[in-house]
Fold this protein.
Amino acid sequence: MPEAPVAAEAPRRALRADAERNRRLVLDAAAAVFAERGLEAGVAEIAQRAGVGTATVFRRFPTKQDLIVAVVDARICDMGDQLAAAQADPDPWAGVVGVWILTKRAVCVEKLIVTTWLLPVPVAMAFPKFVPSFDTNTE
């Protein structure tokens, strides 16, 4: 029996400038609130800190888990960019210091990343390539 043709995924449209700004505000506010109060912090508090309405948060991130995953993903991507910049530094010592500062910031300031790496399923499973393997079998 022939297989059904697979529809090509439509390319994602870039966000409007104001929508991208709001997305970044929400991610930054969420990272700060989660670092201060833990993952139990409410979406309303995050929206208030970002200066947007809760509908704006939920439009971009339908669930709180989606928001948590997006925050961690953004922080990991930011760290990757900073690491690449440190490695590209023509002064090797400045590059080493840059990596050291990046690592200290990740451990001391970005509590959300460290917390997420230590979380059990389901948040950590969203980042299998960044999380040490763990057994999800609960039997």
Notes: The chain has one domain: 17-126. The CA atoms of residues 44 and 108 lie 26 Å apart. The helical segments are 17-37, 43-50, 54-60, 64-88, 92-108, 111-118. The chain is about 60% helix and 0% strand.
